[in-house]
Amino acid sequence: MEKSLTKTLVFQLQSGDERLLSEAYREARWVYNQTIRLAKEGMDWDDISPRLEDEADLVKNTTQRIVAKALDALQQSYDRDDYNTPSHEKTGPYPLRMNFTEGYNLSLKDDEIHYRISAQPYNPVKGTLRGAPDNLELLERALESDEWRVGTAEAMTRNGNHELHVNVTHLEATVQDKHDTQTVVGVDINEDCVALSALREDAIVDSVVIGYPEIKQERHRYFTIRKRMQNAGQTAFDQVLEDKEERYVHDQLHQISRRIVEWVQQFESPLVVFEDLKHMRDSIDYGTRMNRRLHSLPFHKLRSFVAYKAAFEGIPSDDIDPAYTSQMCSFSKCEHTAQSNRRKKRFKCNACGRQDHADRNAAVNIAKKGLESLDRNVPALNTLPTVRKLRRQASGCVNQPTVTPATVRGHQADGREGVSD
359: phi > 0 → left, psi -120 to 50 → alpha, else beta; which? Predict the structure, then answer.
């Protein structure tokens, strides 16, 4: 099965005119703020871009892309019941979002990739790109091949460096047909971890829980700091902290999604299966504090990162109905379903007494539903392997022992061995 796949490549901008780029970032921030302000004041969204195209000291195409991005952020906040509504008083640089050949251009010369960014009308910034060899090779291929298309890009400053983030699309990438699947991998995404379970028609192959508690901790830390500053009337750096948090979470999710896809690749003809949580948030109200945590969780972002990284490896993905995956006992002879079966990270079936890591149990159920959606045989699961947990560290993911001593019983996977939280 052929489909278009898009990947973002990151490069450093080698230029002698950083001042012009910095001025353009500030002008982009003004466009963003004006877009949010005008939209909040009730201006028709279709009229905002034409107005700002005439007022901004940017090329029209770049202004259009920035306005579109700002309105998209506003629409997303409306979809989350006004959670984290964008501010029109942000400060600091904002990325230049540009179309290829309009806001920016790339060319090959003397074994280097040269760029031309229209930072201001009739005032371009020129230089060469630096970056990872794999990224440079892929961009060169995209510029020369009819199978690839170079798309939008963003010029920005990050950690004191000027960068260009370029989207390239493979127009005819081959992704395995999901009906040729041999192994279904169920993915259960949570606030502090993701559980993965691989099933074939004859047995469960493996399962793992990849923890990322640092994301939850860091986001709570940022929230606490911003809350204290707001209570003290110090809101000047509120948006700066919010942007730092967003960048941190974004980078962490990229690392986690890469680790997930690496784990999935070990299996024969895999299919990655997610829960379809599209309408879940709209139907649940846990109160102010829990709603804030639920609506801000990066479920969709992590899911999309995993899906497109998997697709680049030829691995398809799919969704299943999430009903009762966290409440049902995954043992085939039982499958008792009750909300009381789960208590935080511990799953203990009220009917058969089996204990398991709650997220792994849900991932197994997701994989079972994935097999059913393909009209495949679901294996008789009467025992499950001991849960393995991976904790991400500076050097990557490392295995952590999960079997506990007999005196410290945790979540049992098979009626004999306990596994830790």
Answer: alpha
